[in-house]
Design a protein that fits this description.
The N and C termini lie far apart (about 50 Å). It contains three helices and no strands. α1 packs antiparallel against α2 and α1 runs parallel beside α3. The chain is mostly helical and about 90 residues long. The protein is elongated, with a radius of gyration of 15 Å. The longest helix has 29 residues. About 85% of the residues lie in helices and about 0% in strands.
Length: about 90
């Protein structure tokens, strides 16, 4: 049986780390456009994974607070991806 709560916990830890790391990465004056594109792609993949996780949590009937935590994590990844997209846009002039 899949331990959805443990997967959510691990994803939340990764999300917290990314919330700290992404601004530092974007603030690095030596970051390349290719690196920013790769970062954006990875954040999009994480957001998609967490969306699927949220849907799985809903499907198996987890409590509202658990589903809400997954929704917030999904939003965090979407917000990070949007921040990276803005950086990419700025780099392209």
């Amino acid at each position: 049986m899949t331990d959805w709560i443990e997967i959510l916990r691990q994803q939340a830890e990764t999300g917290e780390r990314m919330a700290r790391d992404v601004p530092a990465m974007l603030g690095n004056p030596d970051i390349s456009e290719a690196q920013v594109r790769t970062l954006f792609s990875e954040l999009e993949k994480q957001a998609e994974f967490v969306e699927k996780l949220r849907m799985a949590l809903e499907k198996v009937g987890h409590d509202f607070p658990i589903v809400t935590a997954a929704e917030k994590l999904e939003e965090r990844y979407a917000d990070l991806a949007a921040t990276v997209a803005e950086k990419l846009k700025a780099m392209r002039g």
